[in-house]
Design brief:
This protein is an alpha+beta fold. It has one domain. Helices cover about 30% and strands about 35% of the residues. The model has no long low-confidence stretch (mean pLDDT about 95).
Length: about 100
């Protein structure tokens, strides 16, 4: 592991890179899929489509179920996440690290 990779893992663990990564994608079934970093751990989420029904007075909306599709837990997996999706983040070091692994 290089010094740069250690520094990026420290940034990730400290919470400096927390937040959404890229845009969300809507599937053909109406679900939303997105990636985020929460508490230093990259996670891929999927939320089912909203449901709406009329309760006799007004329309009510119920949010779809939130599922975790994938977690990147080990240091090697986290580095693979930064290599693959780092170009979507707003940190210049992460973008430069990701650019090294893009064709």
């Amino acid at each position: 592991m290089t010094v740069e990779e250690r520094r990026l893992l420290e940034k990730l663990a400290s919470g400096m890179l927390d937040g959404r990564v890229g845009d969300s994608v809507t599937t053909s079934g109406g679900s939303s899929v997105w990636k985020a970093i929460k508490d230093g751990q990259p996670v891929m989420y999927k939320q089912g489509p909203d449901k709406r029904f009329f309760n006799g007075k007004e329309n009510e909306r119920i949010e779809g179920r939130l599922n975790i599709l994938k977690k990147w837990t080990t240091n090697e997996e986290k580095l693979l996440f930064l290599r693959k999706y780092g170009w979507l983040m707003y940190d210049s070091e992460v973008v430069a690290y990701s650019a090294k692994y893009k064709p």
